[in-house]
């Protein structure tokens, strides 16, 4: 019955209708001042005055690259699963991308692999914390211990746990956090960054302050769009939407991806070099001030339950990472199309294509191709696993997956090999 009437969307938007009402009120609220809002956000983020407010992670990263003004042809080591726009920005600044592989069970970078990727031309390491898991940064800083000319960038867009939690390693050049549409504590956009070097921080702030500001009407339209998305991703309406798309010969996957993507088409630097609208800054202030552990705890509990049930059946990226908050829940399988089909028939909107994360390829694969990252992305299915799902539905999801992969034969690699890799990684970082 549930499969006929309900469809659980692959992702729930993390805002309430009270947040939506607040966003609308901020749109029409007079007297909002950019300087005051920026100062309040910076104080909420860091009492040491290390915070920077930006339109997006891409915006802050681009401004940081501009402030560094690295020599053309300098190499940027990047973790092998990343957002293509981040690669585009690196190349826009005349820099060369060097991907490094990850250990998929832990979503960690290995010290030996990182050391092989670093050359005399390396000037930057960009580390992406993936799927809600947080990478141990110790191997990264050990690899650059004798290279003070190398800056470290932490992309923590998927790993936010509240202002009182981890906000980036103080040794990092910049730590980036996103509050875009599908992120934890979304403000329909906006980003916060931590830049510990005063000179670089001021250079980034000055550059961002020179950008044109988005208008209130643009923010209002975005808020209305996400209100509609919030409504239609409730199980009954979402099931109806999927069925109507199928009857019309359309693709709900493509519609959903287009709806949540903030930067579409055109020249990327021109699109991101803007300041947030005033009501967006006010909404971000509200969201940062109301982050509580309850929402994350229910999401973590749901992820832990499904992970414990499936880890002997499917490879789960990040299952061996102790800090995983399950912002997304990926599994890897050679039978990914079959899994998607079966789960959608049972009322779970699994997908292979609704994320912007990609495996990076480059002409400069100094440490070898990121083969584990490529295999992971090629075989990944994203499951709807979040705290709002009733326990009985999580159990039904697990049962359906065990029917498709009863012996673990659908996993992209043998479990013994994954365990061996995890042991090797543990030895490498000790």
Task: Describe the structure in your own words.
The chain has 430 residues and is an alpha/beta fold. It has two domains: 17-209, Type I PLP-dependent aspartate aminotransferase-like (Major domain) (Aspartate Aminotransferase, domain 2), CATH 3.40.640.10; 293-429, Aspartate Aminotransferase, domain 1 (Alpha-Beta Complex), CATH 3.90.1150.10. Helices cover 46% and strands 11% of the residues. Helix 7 links the parallel strand 5 and strand 6 (151-155). Helix 4 (57-68) crosses helix 8.
Secondary-structure blueprint of this entry?
Elements: H1 2-5, H2 17-28, H3 34-45, E1 51-54, H4 57-68, E2 75-79, E3 81-82, H5 84-92, E4 96-100, H6 111-117, E5 122-128, H7 138-143, E6 151-155, E7 174-178, E8 191-194, H8 198-209, H9 216-232, H10 235-247, H11 252-260, H12 268-272, H13 278-289, H14 293-310, E9 329-332, H15 336-345, E10 358-359, H16 371-379, E11 380-383, H17 391-404, H18 415-429
Parallel strand pairs: 2-4, 2-5, 5-6, 6-7
Antiparallel strand pairs: 1-8, 3-10, 7-8, 9-11
